[in-house]
Amino acid sequence: MAEKRDMVQIESLEKYFGEDKERVHVLKGVSLNIPEGSLYTFLGPSGCGKTTTLRCVAGLERPDGGKISIGGQTVYASGERVYVPTNKRPIGMVFQSYAIWPHMTVAENVAYPLTIQRRSKDEIKKRVGDVLKVVGLDGLEDRPAPKLSGGQQQRVAFARALINEPKVMLLDEPLSNLDAKLRVQMRSEIKALQRRTNITTIFVTHDQAEALAISDQIAVMHSGTLIEIGAPHQLYARPTRRFTATFLGLTNLIDGKIVELTGDGQPGKIQTKKGLLSFIPAPGLKKDQAAVLSIRPENIPLYKEKPQGLDNVLEGTVREAIFMGDAYQCKVAVGDDLLAVHTHPFNAVSPGDKVYLHLDPASCNGLPADDKEGIDESMAEL
Ligand SMILES: Nc1ncnc2c1ncn2[C@@H]1O[C@H](COP(=O)(O)OP(=O)(O)OP(=O)(O)O)[C@@H](O)[C@H]1O
Ligand SMILES: [Mg+2]
Question: Is 48 in the pocket of ligand 1 (CB under 6 A)?
Fold first, then answer.
């Protein structure tokens, strides 16, 4: 099969806001390529530059450097002084506030982009009908917009963004106004819609669960820089940066120094306060380097009796065990530290129990210690 081409290319994107002393560097050389037909997510904490990057792609924000192309066409290039205005870019947008007009019906809202292009009545009717079918709102053409549920309003916004047959859909936190249950339902709908239309989609969110559930690829951002790009499973199970490990769900971090490496993807050994532990190193780690071992709570089997013949077994005492229905969420004291451990609900544990934790080396990721990004680490929440 032929390689998928990149639909959106962003190269060394720079953006500042404000003047003089107030000037802040918001995008610091962001480069990424978005494959055609993919659902690509910008994920990161509030203020990291997700919306700004998206607005630069849309042409709603003028960058201060770099290059952006969409479908092979350069829409912005600092050196060549290219700047294609928003209405000439092949994009559709849906924002957090759907910005649908309350005084209009569903059909009028969706038709709006075509109305301002002065398309014929027949063409508008046909295209609105088609796109309402795609989002599952056919039959509701004449319903006034305020008489729609949150999810239906969301779909109207989608339909309106799709009506011009854009090459790229830009979605900025489109689900954050919905209640928790509808959010989860709309996640699946967006994914299904994206699959059906095969339209290249950039999805912005600060919600890691949403990003994991919906994306083909995730670009993790922090403070205007790109931290790491990967498929959801890869980033969650095998992060190569400390920030990715902590931002994409709960993890335990154990500091140490690397004492042995046997090759890329092969187990190494790290000396920690809790003894010598085996782990899988991130690319680029070196012997004698300060590093951190990261292991997720659900990857730590807990035993009442010391298991024999296993590496990476730590002895501890349960401090807290909260029954969550599908798991016990435990905090286990090992030396001076507390480790988060999630166990199967059949495996009943209580505070005070002496236990053994197996930090399975295959689930232990060795990450560079030196890129603490100054953000909340998971243990802070414990
Ligand atoms: N028009 C503006 N003028 C000045 N500063 C701005 C402007 N827009 C954004 N910023 C700043 O730029 C930084 C990045 O903002 P941006 O909106 O891109 O973040 P974000 O990742 O989308 O965050 P959120 O998850 O809160 O939406 C923030 O520090 C923000 O305060
Ligand atoms: Mg934003």
Answer: yes
* C-alpha of residue 51 to centroid of ligand 2, in Å: 4
Q: What is the DSSP string of 22-45?
A: G-EEEEEEEEEEEETT-EEEEE-S
Indicate whether 116 pLDDT > 90: no
Taking only Cα atoms into account, the Rg of the chain, rounded to an integer number of angstroms, comes to: 25
Closest CA to 202 of 4, 8, 47: 8
- The ligand with the least distance to the CA atom of 61 is 1
Q: How far apart are CA 75 and CA 199, in angstroms?
A: 19
Pick the CATH number of 6-236 from 3.40.50.410, 3.50.50.60, 3.40.50.300, 3.90.960.10: 3.40.50.300
Q: Per 3-state DSSP, what percentage of the chain is helix, strand, and coil (rounded to 5)?
A: 25, 35, 40
Ligand 1 atom with the smallest distance to the CA of 55 is 18
Q: Is 37 left (phi over 0), alpha (psi -120 to 50) or beta?
A: left
Closest-lying ligand to the alpha carbon of 172?
2
Residues 127-179 pLDDT 10s: 999 999 988 898 999 999 889 888 888 889 999 999 988 999 999 998 887 88
Longest dimension (CA), the chain: 77
Cβ neighbours around 234 below 10 Å, total: 15
Per-residue pLDDT tens over the stretch 39-56: 999 999 999 999 999 999
The protein residue whose alpha carbon is closest to atom 5 in ligand 1 is 17
What separation in Å is there between the alpha carbon of 187 and the centre of ligand 2? 18
The answer on pLDDT for 230 being more than 90 is: yes
Residue ranges of the chain assigned to CATH 3.40.50.300:
6-236
Please tell me the total number of residues recorded for the chain in this structure.
382
End-to-end CA distance of the chain: 47
- Close Cβ partners of 96 (under 8 Å, ≥ 6 residues apart): 172, 173, 174, 176, 177
Entry pTM: 0.91
Residue of 22, 25, 42, 50 with the most ligand 1 atoms within 8 Å of its CB, for mutation: 50
Q: Name the phi and psi angles at 156, rounded to 5.
A: -60, -45
Q: What is the CATH number of domain 238-381?
A: 2.40.50.100
